[in-house]
């Protein structure tokens, strides 16, 4: 303290440039000495906390390797049949392992996904739809099928994503292309809320679908069933600051999806698949859209604590059985 006051008085009393530079140099030297002291004190403490964390990472990587190794025969067979089939199954194994390790990921109702034939899967969009990635991985591994997906056009502008999107059959989403995929017998996943729901929904889990009915018209034109889907605690894994007025204004005014997302918490994820809504030629797109929305909302009401709690979602990792709703 005395040294700092002395340096300040030195700077104030400096009468020429040389004197000023000398005093400034002494002050910088004092600050550097202080920083050196902080590093000397806190570096050992940082190492003490970081090293155990690295050990945990190595343990999780080892578990991830075991997940891949457990499916080595399936992977070998997939690579023999088709290069991209093998690549998809390898990445699916990695993502499935990540979901199992980090979120204890579960799917309830997988039997509702047909082993063959088309179906439209409509889901709630989290701040980051990592639960949907886990779902896609599980479908590949358990059903042996690739589920096509509709994504926002912004995803196609990210450098380096083109090949990934092609291999996993991600499309931009014109209705004609969606109908074509379903008529060719594929599964198709879509979130009517899209980017708006991802950024501006919150821990109360409102569905921000506005008046979107295109997905319903796709199901009608393709004459396929619609399967509602929701993942418990997806908003507790990652959250968005989109509820702040500035980010909402920027999106509404300029369509800039720049609301920061934070989280990555290892909360419990459970994906629930509702009963398929069959094709009915007498149902309009407006009616079907409302019916699907009510089905997804029913899954939220039944399986999600409102408002969501990160702490409670973390504690779910230590419960061996799911509580009855």
TrEMBL record:
Domain Phospholipid/glycerol acyltransferase positions: 106-229
Domain of life: Eukaryota
Record keywords: Membrane, Transmembrane, Transmembrane helix
A GO term for molecular function: acyltransferase activity
GO cellular component terms listed in the entry, alphabetical order: membrane
Membrane-traversing stretches: 37-66
UniProt-listed SUPFAM superfamilies: Glycerol-3-phosphate (1)-acyltransferase
Transmembrane among keywords: yes
One Pfam short name: Acyltransferase
PANTHER family (UniProt xref): MONOACYLGLYCEROL_DIACYLGLYCEROL O-ACYLTRANSFERASE (PTHR22753:SF14), TRANSMEMBRANE PROTEIN 68 (PTHR22753)
Official protein name in the record: Transmembrane protein 68
Organism: Oryzias latipes (Japanese rice fish)
Organism phylogeny: Eukaryota, Metazoa, Chordata, Craniata, Vertebrata
